[in-house]
Amino acid sequence: MSSAWVEIDLNAIAHNFEEIKRAVGHDKKIMPVIKADAYGHGLVPVARVLEEKGADFLAVSYVEEGIALRKAGIKIPIAILLGIIPEEIKALFTYQLTPIIYRLEIAKKLSQEAQKRRTQISVFVKVDTGMGRLGVFYKEAISFLKEVNHLPGLKIEGISSHLALAETDRRFTQKQFMRFKAILRAASQVGLTLKFNHIANSAGALMYETGLSVIRPGLTLYGVYPVRSLRQKINLRPAMCFKTRIIYVKWLPPHVGVSYGHTYVTTKKTRIAVIPIGYDQGLFRQLSNKGEVLVQGKRVPIIGTICMHLTMLDVTKLDKVDIGEEVVILGKQGNEEITADEIAFKAGTISYDVLCRFGRSNPRVYL
Asked: Quick check: is 279 catalytic?
């Protein structure tokens, strides 16, 4: 066993998918977002679970991720969220991937390749309804859609957009929905049939009635709530647990500095335990002197500066501590739990960052 590892509960991901489906209604099509190695949970294992549970599409960021899924035997449609560059066009046809497009020159190159192959490729058109990031500005969306629609070999499956403030600003979010639906109405009036349209992320899908046929959940699949109030609506199970083991225990007298910079100095006789992980394994250095972990089902504080591969814990309050004991950084032990949200708050980041970092930096064990 490695010095640290993450346990991934694939049953939890299956459960969360079913809970999302129940909450939004079984008439909705679901496009799970599994970019960034499924938020650190493992691209292919997660994709297999979701395909088996009935996901209608999968969404990734890069063509390479789509290729990996096809090589692993995934059959359902795969959307490439970030768009593509010309060098990736042939791979789209080879592996039957669905790009999201927002540049006319890319659309034209896709059309040329489709004609050369005497085939058709499905695309989504990305529209910027208020994110200010990728996508055709919403006021220019209809003219762009018309131009793409006239290109032979392209089939526009629908339009896509992204919510900027779904968790915090209902008024602006409703404005984005209104812009999105106005584009769909205008498209219908000029004879465009756009069947699969998606703008709602986890928060958008669960906090608003979108009236759209497709939702695009990400964070909730992995058992994290975008906002606390959703705990009343949906029962999620965290899918990731991050663990290590104690490698050393000793007593220190009062007035002894611990770790680099002596940012912590003992005030009394203190028993410390050392765990063999640090920021190289994704443990945020910002948790120095303020993070907690679980030992014997109880919270114990991180003391001193977190090192590259070592972190110190104050285990004085525990009756007995042995080398080799399991330590939980993220997840449950006994009746206690440390969540991604808690870690994110203390580290000054977001739960997405916590999951991606822990999952990327450590070997995974699937349950």
From this structure: no
